[in-house]
Specification:
It contains two helices and six strands, in the order ββββαββα. It has a single domain, classed as Beta Barrel (OB fold (Dihydrolipoamide Acetyltransferase, E2P)), CATH 2.40.50.140. The chain is about 10% helix and about 50% strand. The relative contact order is 0.22. The chain has a five-stranded mixed β-barrel with strand order 1-3-4-6-5. The chain is mainly β. About 5% of the residues have low confidence.
């Protein structure tokens, strides 16, 4: 039987991307993404709930995220789910974290303007898609 592991999200960054290099030289960027869902309760009240997702990007995607993304920017991420497991050093308990490994990233809003433009304006023209 076939299986499918595919995620598509549009949301806002909850923090600036944290970019680093692996010992083998690959670039990795990690950031949080908030997605919102609006719904109406049985009583007719509109409610909104946020879901927070950790995202990791690799190589050129990671470089682009580090250069052009910042907290608050809206982005489209397409990728797959990955479950990481590790043993907590302090408690010795096993921990797990589900996150999205982004395989495609696209800016979903206009680049920031003015004094608070941040990195994207200092580095030049923003690419349409990464």
């Amino acid at each position: 039987m076939n299986s499918l592991n595919k995620v598509m999200l549009i949301g806002n960054l909850t923090r600036d991307p944290e970019v680093r290099q692996t010992p083998k030289g690959a670039t990795v960027a990690e950031f949080g993404l908030a997605t919102n869902r609006t719904y109406t309760t049985e009583a007719g009240e509109k409610q909104e709930e946020a879901t927070f997702v950790d995202v990791v990007l690799w190589n050129r995607q990671a470089e682009t995220a580090g250069e052009f993304l910042q907290k608050g920017r809206q982005v489209y991420v397409e990728g797959r789910l990955q479950l990481d497991s590790w043993q907590d050093k302090e408690s010795g308990k096993m921990r797990q974290k589900l996150r999205v490994v982004g395989e495609r990233m696209q800016f979903a809003d206009a680049p920031p303007r003015g004094e608070d433009a941040g990195r994207s304006q200092r580095r030049g023209r923003e690419p349409a898609m990464a």
